[in-house]
Write a structure and sequence with these properties.
Helix content: 40-55%
Radius of gyration: 22 Å
Oligomer: single chain
Structural class: alpha+beta
Number of helices: 11
Low-confidence stretches: 359-367
Mean pLDDT: 91
Number of strands: 10
Length: 367
């Protein structure tokens, strides 16, 4: 077999690759939407970033990150037990992982590895910046000696791309730190787990914690490197985080402090509201008593978050000539959005709780 491309769908969450890769792979093999709607509820952020002193690598842009607490592959039941590259195999590969990746793709495994993007010319950082990051490989062409990959291109567009075997080898070998377990092999199967279903017993407690800005149920250590005593904020308090981040950034720029603007937190924030909106509409289609008024307010929350995100992106890219004043109304706008979201999510929790006994009865009848 000289070429093969594994299927890949568009992920409902694309703000960080640790979400987009895994959902794009899972949804090609599993009807995981009921599971997605049971999860991807809780948000978290690190309050220390409000000091505007922790910058994105190789930049003067202070981090303003928000994450889904449930976002990483170990949380995904179809990927959690995926095999990893071991140290002995990595040593045996020497300076070339390309042929090994081809073998895995032939066996229908998606390969997620870790590379220095400087060596992958099609990626945003290719040829310009040494930047270690995960990379998903989902196909190959042995005659052309190219891999099918997905990532951010030179125009910051997230899309399907190609790289050569030699580029993947160089990016892999030069990744720092060079850790075997960062390369994982994904082959999700609906037969390997119980059928995906909406789980109100999971959804309702996590939603309650989102509304109370607390977290006792989920592991917040997304990357396995969370430091003790880190002050994480959760749930609705992420509104306050973005409000303060923007207010402090505007104040610093007014004092002529040179710094970039991190749009990623605002993007994830918008994707979270989009997920909430999609969930409400899906529940309504499943027979839950979600009113049109509730659906309208969910759409209002999503639209408001998208508006804030778009303004931040345009200011970051210099598309608004005197960008700072365009950002000033956003914190107040977000406060209005927060009140609407809190109210409609409390109503949704009541609807799901009222519907739950019926759902339990249906489940018992199937056993």
């Amino acid at each position: 077999m000289t070429a093969k491309i594994l299927p890949l769908v568009e992920s409902p969450i694309r703000g960080y690759m640790m979400y987009s890769y895994h959902l794009a792979v899972t949804l090609t093999n599993v009807d995981a939407w009921p599971w997605i709607h049971s999860n991807y509820v809780q948000l978290q952020c690190n309050a220390a970033q409000l000091a505007l002193s922790e910058c994105i690598d190789f930049s003067k842009t202070p981090k303003g990150e928000i994450h889904f607490t449930e976002g990483t592959a170990p949380f995904n039941p179809w990927l959690a037990d995926s095999d990893k590259l071991d140290e002995a195999t990595m040593e045996s590969l020497g300076d070339s992982i390309a042929e090994y990746v081809v073998t895995k793709l032939q066996q229908d495994f998606y390969v997620e590895t870790f590379v220095d993007e400087f060596y992958i010319s099609a990626l945003f950082n290719g040829g310009t910046t040494h930047f270690g990051h995960r990379l998903l490989v989902y196909g190959y062409d042995d005659e052309r000696r190219t891999f099918n990959i997905i990532g951010f291109d030179k125009n910051s567009q997230y899309r399907q791309l190609e790289c050569s075997y030699a580029e993947l080898d160089a990016g892999f070998v030069h990744s720092v730190p060079h850790i075997a377990g960062r390369t994982r092999f994904f082959k999700p199967s609906a037969d390997s787990r119980p059928p995906a279903r909406f789980d109100p017993e999971r959804f309702l407690p996590v939603l309650a914690e989102y509304l109370s800005s607390t977290n006792t149920l989920l592991n917040p250590d997304l990357r396995g490197d969370l430091k003790p005593n880190t002050d994480l904020w959760y749930g609705l308090k992420t509104y306050e985080f973005l409000q303060q981040y923007l207010t402090r950034w505007i104040d610093a720029r007014n004092r002529d402090v040179p710094m970039g603007l991190d749009f990623r937190g605002f993007h994830i924030f918008w994707e979270h509201k989009k997920c909430m909106n999609q969930r409400a509409r899906w529940l309504a289609a499943q027979g839950y008593a979600v009113s049109q008024s509730m659906l309208d307010r969910f759409s209002q929350v999503q639209t408001s978050a998208e508006s804030a995100r778009n303004l931040v992106v345009m200011c970051r890219r210099g598309l608004l000539p005197r960008g700072r004043e365009h950002l000033i109304p956003i914190p107040e706008q977000m406060e209005t959005t927060r009140r609407i979201e809190a109210e409609v999510l409390a109503e949704l929790a009541h609807v799901v709780a009222q519907h739950a006994p019926t759902l339990h009865g249906e489940k018992s009848a199937q056993v």
